[in-house]
Amino acid sequence: MEHIIIKAEGTENYGSMDMSPECRPRPLSDRNSYGEYVIIAKTIFLGPHWPLFAATLIGFNVFAYIMMRQQKALGHDITFGIIITLAQSILYLGVGLANPGIANDSQLNQKYLGQLYSLSNRPQQRNVWYCEKCQKIQPARSDHCPFCRVCITNYDHHCPWTGKCIGGENLFHFWAFLISTIIFFTYFVTILLNQREDAKNQ
């Protein structure tokens, strides 16, 4: 356990509690920080690895197009292939463009200003915690991503293939995308295996 006194930037008053030797003042920032994210029209959040996200999206669709073109040339129905490709692309865009849950609640700074409290080593066991990088008091179950350089609420992991973090705001889209991707590859791998089997029988 580490006891911390939170200090507002530019102030000298640490509250009425006496500072014990292990207490030290921490600066607080009220500025909204988006780290490495590029915000477009206040609704699109591109993460630091957005080129990899774009390349993966294009790769999925080029692969599907080639496979379905072959199937159509052989006279097979490609309706399901079109549906699963569209569904996977939409869900992938939902993950890659949505706000993952960037923690920018400045009100927590004021709520806990000057208070002495204990922080456990694990963010999941804290009511709030202080981020050294963002210089803010952050909500429980948030964590700082070293790639995005910002705290994410309900942080799960950083996924370079989606170009960003997976957090509270895009976790559902992420799992839906994974399920659609499993169906996507199961469908097209089955087609490839059938083509291989047909080639052997000829």
Automatic annotation (TrEMBL):
Keyword terms of this UniProt record: Acyltransferase, Membrane, Transferase, Transmembrane, Transmembrane helix
Parts of the chain that traverse the membrane: 50-68, 80-98, 172-193
Palmitoyltransferase DHHC domain ranges (all copies): 130-193
Biological process per Gene Ontology, one example term: protein targeting to membrane
Membrane topology: Multi-pass membrane protein
Catalytic activity of the protein: L-cysteinyl-[protein] + hexadecanoyl-CoA = S-hexadecanoyl-L-cysteinyl-[protein] + CoA
Entry's EC annotation: 2.3.1.225
MF (Gene Ontology): protein-cysteine S-palmitoyltransferase activity
EC supergroup of this enzyme: transferase
Localization in the cell: Membrane
UniProt key word Transferase: yes
A single cellular component GO annotation: endoplasmic reticulum
Highest taxon of the lineage: Eukaryota
Comment text on domains: The DHHC domain is required for palmitoyltransferase activity.
Family as reported in the entry's similarity comment: Belongs to the DHHC palmitoyltransferase family. PFA5 subfamily.
PANTHER family named in the record: PALMITOYLTRANSFERASE ZDHHC6, ZINC FINGER DHHC DOMAIN CONTAINING PROTEIN
Protein name, as recorded: Palmitoyltransferase
